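Q: Here's a chain of 257 amino acids. Please give me its 3D structure as tokens.
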Amino acid sequence: MSKKKETSENRRALPRFALTMAGSMLAGGAIGFVVGLNRVFGLDTDALAEGLNAVLAAVTPWGIPVSSVLTLGGCFLFYRSAAVKFAAWDGGDEDETSEAVDAALSRVLLLSAVQLLLNFFFMAAFCIYGIDGGIGALSLVGVFLVSCGLVIFAQQKTVDLEKRMNPEKHGSVYDTKFQKKWMDSCDESERRQIGQACYRAYIVTSRVCLEVWMVLVILSLVFEMSLLPVFVLLLVWGVMQVTYTLECIRLSKKGGT
């Protein structure tokens, strides 16, 4: 790329960047003004925090069972739809059938991944708000384990059906090296799709991390907060950034393989 072209692209991008920075400064100023009013008029942030804690404490014991019924019920419906379409396939119109089945199976994986995150969240919330060492704690741990087991089972059934559709695929969800074996069995087109999806996830996650950092900084002006949430966020963000960069360096040395 010539120096003239680089200068032209920079000039075209600079106004939008300047507007973005100006908008961010205005938004920060407005938020600072609101925070200042909060301190002047004395909003009872302690009472607000106690109210939020009370809501979480009341919801937490029911979080895993209720969310599991909804998400895993959806997993069952999508998987059954995919299995019925695959069983009815007579060998013709392969692209249309495989796309419909893949779409249903992708929704199974999405819902199961969401449920796994909900399980971890509500289990951590229970340890903070509701653990008493009694029967209630043992019951919730049992529900947590059952829900996680059903999530893994749903993912395993999804992978098995995908392997029936594509016999060249191999790997088991129960194998610790499943991702590597599955990737090795994908063709070039599928690897490109995975690469594009991973890059999209990287970009979105980077933006979300920045936005969450801004929210945490603003909340620290209103509530009493420790540095731990920001540290954990930046740790995750940093690991992602460093891993991505190091992997790009490694791939460039190996010629992209």
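Q: Can you summarize the key feature?
A: DSSP finds seven helices and no strands in the chain.
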